[in-house]
Amino acid sequence: MDIGGVIDYLIGFAIMAMIYAVFALGLNVHWGFTGLFNIGIAGFFALGAYTAALLTSPPPDPDQFEDFIFGGNLANHGLLDLGVDAWFLLGLAAAALVCGLVALIIGTITLRLNDDYLSIATLGIAESVRFFFLNEKWAANGSKGLYRIPKFLGDVVAPESYDYLYVVVVLVVMLILFAAVQRAVRSPWGRVLRAIREDEVATAASGKNVFHFKLQAFVLGSMVMGIGGALFAHHVRFLSPLTFDPLLATFVIWAMLMVGGSGNNLGAILGAFVVWGVWAGTQFLPGVLSDPSFRLLMIGVLIVTIMLLRPGGLLGEWRRIVERRPASVAGRDPAGPD
Amino acid sequence: MHSVSSQPQNLAGPSRRYLRRLGLRMSPGRISALLAAGLLTLGFLPFIKLGLVVNGLILGSVIALGAIGLTLVYGILKLGNFAHGDYMALGAYVAFFIVDGVLPRVGIEGAGLGPFTFGFPVLIALPLAAVVVALGAIALDWLIYRRLRDRAASTAILMMASLGVAIAIRGLVQLIWSGETQHYPRESRQVYHLPMDVRIPPDGLFVAVLAVILVAGVYALLTYTKIGKAMRATSDNPTLALVSGINTGRVVWWTWGIGGALAAVAGVLLAVVQAQLLPIMGWKFLIPLFAAVILGGIGNPYGALIGALIVGVSMELSTQWINPSYKPAVAFAIMIGVLLARPRGIFGDAL
Predict the structure, then answer these.
(1) Is B256 within 8 Å of chain A by CB?
(2) Using CA atoms, how far apart are residues B309 and B346, in angstroms rounded to an integer?
(3) Which domain does B229 fall in, by range?
(4) Which of A113, A298, A307 sits opposite B351 (nearest CB)?
(5) Separation between Cα atoms, residue B286 and residue A144, nearest integer Å
(6) Which residues of B touch A303 (CB under 8 A)?
(7) Are A123 and B287 within 8 A, CB to CB?
(8) CB-neighbour burial class of residue B39 (10 A; exposed 0-12, middle 13-18, buried 19+)
(9) Are B235 and B349 in contact (CB under 8 A)?
(10) Do B161 and A303 touch (CB under 8 A)?
């Protein structure tokens, strides 16, 4: 492999790692800061990706797509004739909006109840979204998938070096989201979230509406995930319901947050790079080590081990409070929502 | 599960007392919920294909076996076990290993036993798989959940760990048996034809009868044995159970043992009914399982049984109007409906 090939590979790797980092940031808002247990990331992943793709893709050719009738086509004519590039940005916003809306509905139903119900409901959402896109061929071409998803600023650079442009796009979006989430969780609002995570009853007793704060956090995190899905759609430019299997769209992201440290946004991004690096790197290993099933097994073992040894993740949360507190309190397990 | 701590009710007639013993105490809310469900069913009756109801009861039996274990673990250990579906899959694959890899070497082979598609080997493998998964579930508790409980970890941490276990089990199953579709040796068999266009596959009859026997066994265990009573007491109030001298450690082992064994049987039966094994079959079954548990009220095994039958029948009936691949989504819709209308479930007490 020549040096150019290596760089191309690394660029592709960085794009995927940063897209995953966006999801890890969203999950961090759910789990890391608020203690909400979302195991249906795949659902928001798919919703965000399909929303962005359907809004920007060209219309289906009736000769080739018998069942598929929906297919956006909003980019080229329609109400807002802005061209593909503006629609890419609108697509990101729409993906966030759709995911936020679904999160609002699910959250309103489940977040008043016991914590467990949210996780079961998110699992149901993930499966239902997949069933929808698998069965409703008119919406997104069913299992044959959606392709011809356009590039953002596709005519600025040559197709073979497009990734060099897109890596910057993803980086910028990721940094904006990082700054936004970081700002949100450092605000008084974010302090309430962490208070809910640590002790819900005490937070409620001090006059905070726990349900509202949880709902806001759930919606915010899901919107971040929606943007991640949209970025993914314009990167791979092919979507099928099979893309969003629980392994690569939910469990890997959990592993990333666990490794990076829940409650630590920088850690979430770092975790995304480390886990994706290990994931992508191990495919060059010989024998059983590169077997996807083996990697699945390892992800499971990793999650259990971290839960047993360091429930706050490997890096853990950086707490400024630590210095101000007496040693007996600060010395406690720097766990997440334990 | 709540009958232990409940105060004796002065009005309890014989039938009421019997229902109470099952943990199915009647209250205005419960009666109206059941009535609403009954009326809804009656209203739909003229449009319903009876054959689908039969299919639904068969599916419901499989869900019930899984859901009873899930609800026991949920009620007693306060753990919504995301690995329960994968315990089912593991059971199905252990049975497959015995049927396909072990028994042929000692000359036990065959399919099409009597009216059934499967053969004698599956009958041998069934209890063995149940024992293996039961021991496995106990071992996993000793390795993982025991430590977390000792540390008084939150339910979210416990559930997260169970998610890790679920992923690991599926990875292991795929690694050993590959992700390809497998099936027990089978021969096609005639289905029984009944009036009104009802067709019952003999396998379905086997599934339903076995489920009834096992549920009766669980009932007897919980009602008449010392360990069963201890389990109910622990479910009601773990601290009280501990201070009144109940060996909660044994209760935990029995809970996992029963849950694991029932899950394994459910997995084998699911593989028989679906005529195939897939590593993901258990994970995909989680939504119906949780729907049944929530519908019946968390921690209530008899509620889970009724919930499972309702979910199973609804899933099958829905195929009359909508695409069959939406069946799990139907279970999810029921669950959301219950969470909206009556989050405790029909027979649940505490939330």
Answers:
(1) no
(2) 13
(3) 50-341
(4) A113
(5) 27
(6) 160-161, 163-164, 167
(7) yes
(8) exposed
(9) no
(10) yes
How many CB contacts within 8 angstroms connect chain A with chain B? Answer: 135
Amino acid occupying residue A226: G
- Two structure tokens written together for B319: 């195929």
- CATH at B221: 1.10.3470
Could you tell me which of A24, A41, A89, A43 has the C-alpha nearest to residue A260? A24
| Chain B residues inside the 8 Å CB shell of A125 | 332
Is there a domain that residue B211 lies in?
yes
Nearest-angstrom CA–CA distance, A278 and A200: 36
* Cβ–Cβ gap A39/B82 under 8 Å: yes
To the nearest whole percent, how much of chain A has pLDDT over 70?
85
Which chain A residues have a beta carbon less than 8 Å from that of B340? Answer: 109
Q: How confident is the model at residue A333 (pLDDT cuts 50, 70, 90)?
A: very low
Identify any residues that bridge with A136 across adjacent strands, giving them in sequence order.
Answer: none
SS3 assignment, position B198: strand
In a structure prediction context, what are the per-residue pLDDT tens digits for chain B, which is 351 residues long?
444 444 444 444 555 555 565 556 667 777 777 787 777 777 766 667 778 888 899 999 999 999 999 999 998 988 889 999 999 999 999 999 999 888 888 877 777 777 888 888 889 999 999 999 999 999 999 999 999 988 888 888 888 899 999 999 999 999 999 888 888 888 777 778 777 777 888 888 999 999 999 999 999 999 899 999 899 888 888 888 888 888 888 899 999 999 999 999 999 999 999 889 999 999 889 999 999 999 998 888 888 999 999 999 999 988 888 888 888 889 999 988 888 888 888 776 543
Name the 3-class secondary structure at B25: coil
| Amino acid B342: pLDDT | 81
- In a domain? residue A127: yes
Q: How far is B10 from chain A (nearest CA, A)?
A: 32
Mark yes or no for CB contact B174/A119 under 8 Å: no
CA distance B197 to chain A (A): 28
**What pLDDT was estimated at residue B268?**
95
- Strand (E) positions, chain B? 192-194, 198-200
CB contact under 8 A, B157 and A311: yes
**pLDDT tier for residue A56 given thresholds of 50, 70 and 90:** confident
pLDDT tens string A238-266: 888 888 887 788 888 988 998 888 888 99
Q: CA nearest B177: which of B65, B284, B99, B63?
A: B99
The Cα of A206 is separated from the nearest Cα of chain B by a number of Å equal to 22
Residue B37 lies in a domain: no
Expressed as residue numbers, the domain containing A174 is 3-245
**Residue B259 has which token pair?**
């849950």
SS3 at position A37:
coil
Nearest residue in chain B measured CA to CA from A109: B340
- Name the residue facing B157 among A127, A293, A307 (closest C-beta): A307
Q: Does A32 touch chain B (CB under 8 A)?
A: no
Domain total of chain B: 1
For residue A294, give how far its alpha carbon lies from the nearest alpha carbon of chain B (Å). 6
ipTM score: 0.82
Q: What is the pLDDT of residue A24?
A: 95
Q: Is residue A253 part of a domain?
A: no
Given the structure tokens 């036990």, which residue do they identify? Answer: B108
**How far off is chain B from A188, nearest CA to CA, in Å?**
24
Question: Amino acid identity, residue A58?
Answer: P
Per the structure, how many domains does chain A have? 1
Query: Which of B156, B339, B340 lies nearest to residue A37, judging by beta carbons?
Result: B156
